[in-house]
Structures are given as structure tokens and as C-alpha cells.
Amino acid sequence: MNALRIIADDLTGACDIGAEMLPWPAGVVVQPAAGGSSPAGALGVRNTQSRTLSPAEAASRVSGVLDDLRIGWSGIVLKKIDTGLRGPLGAEIDAAMDVLGATEAFVLPAIPEVGRTTEQGRQMIGGVPVHRTAFARDPQNPIRNPSVPAAIEATSRRRGAVIGLGAIRGRDDFDRVLEEARAGGASVFVCDAETDADLERAVRRLLSRPRPLLLVGSTGLARALRRILGPENGGRPRGPVSFPAGSGVLTRRSSSTVPVSRRPRGWPRGSSSRVVGRSLWWRRRRRYRTAAPPCWRRSGRPRSRRWRGRGPAGSPSSAARPPTTSSTGSDTRCSPSSRASVHSSCVRGS
Q1: CA distance 181 to 119
Q2: Number of helical (H) and strand (E) elements in the chain, helices listed first
Q3: pTM for this structure?
Q4: Is the separation of the CB atoms in 193 and 118 below 8 Å?
Q5: What percent of the chain has pLDDT over 90?
């Protein structure tokens, strides 16, 4: 789709975004390196692998993956960033705006589904400001300030401003708030969002802005954009979704998926989605058989006790299971029933 270009600052994020945009008529192509091209009609997701680079190097890579867009191009660029605010965010936004000739950019880094929200311009992780979480101890990008505009301005030539929930939810006039921020010298606007509905409201308002349009965010933004712009107007795929190893393509074609003959032992009947990647299933099972859950450690129970879960969410033991959430290298949950992954696994929607 020539009217939509997606770029991500690391490969995991590129795959996450690609999975969110499925199903797409001609498939979604994830390009691990900056070069390469997508098949005709396919939605391309280009990885710049720039999160840990210097601002100048990161800006150069972003410019490189967008330099094929012709002058006068009037589409949408979705720039995926880390919702923990790691990386040279401002430098990459500057580079994208310069190439596109855009006069404004909109940043929506919330993923409400996993507890990551943007409140009064501050990034929150499970209700805690991001600089008071593990992101503050990141060895390459330690976070010291939860302000999204401040994180952008640290490596940007442009000023940032916050569009609050009042404007997003319609209590205040959105256009008036935006113009007041522009009059104050801002050209990068951070939109508050506490729910998926907030993201969708914001996207619907932003799609009326002049093109080219630069949207910056993560999987929450991609999901909202998919529901509004998608060729089927939203919904999860009815057929299998896969990421064939080595091909760099996320697609809906059943011929490229893992055959499904029976569920893994212990898999619950009637679940809303099923994952048939056995390596992923057994890895999760071993993890829970060899470590006491966090709730036991907090309550002072002896570490020698082993918690033996029998199956994934929905099984008889799932009520006592701690949530399977991880943020290592990604902004999405590490639950195999939630998204397609880079493993050779298949997700089926019931």
C-alpha cells in the first residue's frame, strides 16, 4: 500500500507492528534491514535498527528508508518507537519530518492493553512513571524523565507540546488546542491516551490533518490505525497468521503455516486463540515449573516450593498463575495467545 509506510527502530518492534496490521490483502512484509523492497500491494515494515545508535546515525537511517518517497507524496508514515522512551526519539522524528516536508508530527506512545499510558504528557508503565521503573536502569538508554516532550526535545531541533485528554475526548476543541500549541512554537504534539478508545479517537481526528502525515507510536497506535484504515475495517484474522523463518514476510497464506493436527497436551478447549508453536509452549511451561511465582516471593513463602502450572491461560490452574508479561526487547506481551511472533508459530482466531 503506497499510501502507508511503516518504519520501526528495531526488528522486534517491526514484527509487532506487522502482526497488528494483519490481515492485509497482499500480506505484510517485514524487512529486517533498511534495504529491499516489498511485493506489489504488500504493506512494508522497514527496520532501521536505530534505537541504540547516536542521534546523527539514527537520523541518517530514518532518512535512508524514506528517501524513495517522491516530493508531493501525500500518504501516512507510521514511525514505531519504544514506549519506554528509549532511543534518540527526537532525532528520528526530525529526520522523518525533513524527508517528508511535514510541518507537524503526532506522538501517541500508549499501549493501554498492557498498562502503558500517556497522562499529561508523562509516560506511565502500570500506573508508575517510566523513570521509576526498570527502564531507569537500562544500560544503554537509562530513562531519567517521564515527560514524552522532554524525551523528544533532548535530541530534536523542534519543540514538543501535549494534547490532553480533554481535547482527545471532545471536552475541549481539538483544533483550537492544537493551534494554541502551534502558536507557542510547537510542531511535535504528544497525545494523551489512557484507553484504546482514546487512541482511536485521536487517530480519527488526526487523519483529517494535512498530508503527508507523520504518526509516531507503537502497537497501540498501529491497532487503532488498522481498525480505521484497514481494508476490512478491523477485526483479527480468521485464517492462520505466520512469520516463516528466514523469509521476512508476515502473511495470511495457510500454505506457509505450521499444520495443525491436534492441540498440545493441556491446551484448553474453547479458547479464543490458539498457538501451535510447540517450542514456545514448552519454554513457557518449563519457566513456570522451575521458578516460584512473584506472588509467593512477595508473601514470604519458601522459594523451595515449585509452582507447577498445567497449561496456558484458561486452564484449571490459570486462576493462580501470575500474568505472563515481558518487556524485553519489545512493547508487547510475551503471551503466545496474543500475537504472532518471529518463531515459526501460527495463531488462529476462533
Answers
A1: 17
A2: 10, 14
A3: 0.70
A4: yes
A5: 56
